[in-house]
Amino acid sequence: MASSFLLTVLLCAAVTVSVRALPIVLLSRLNFPLAVREWLNFVPAAIMAAIIVSEVLGHPALTEAGWSISLLATLVSFSVGLATRSLFLTVLAGVAAFALLGWILP
């Protein structure tokens, strides 16, 4: 059983790495037009926005009183991100706000 588990983990790792690395390796050799390169700069922000909106609106963490902890922590993160322009501090503030608000709010 241990060998089949190890084989499964190794196969999953190989698939994950190939799916993520193969497009980068193949597409890095292509020279895209400037308009495409500029458009691709928006992809990370669009993906992050989709993840955040999905979490906040789709399955928000609510308190017993009905407060949306997810939305409040998002607002804290957004504020810290605007003020500091630091990804690390933004994520840290969001996680801390989510934890503290879940503990403080009824």
From TrEMBL:
Residue ranges crossing the lipid bilayer per the database entry: 39-58, 88-105
Keywords assigned: Membrane, Transmembrane, Transmembrane helix
Pfam family, any one: AzlD
Protein name (record): Branched-chain amino acid ABC transporter
Organism: Cereibacter changlensis JA139
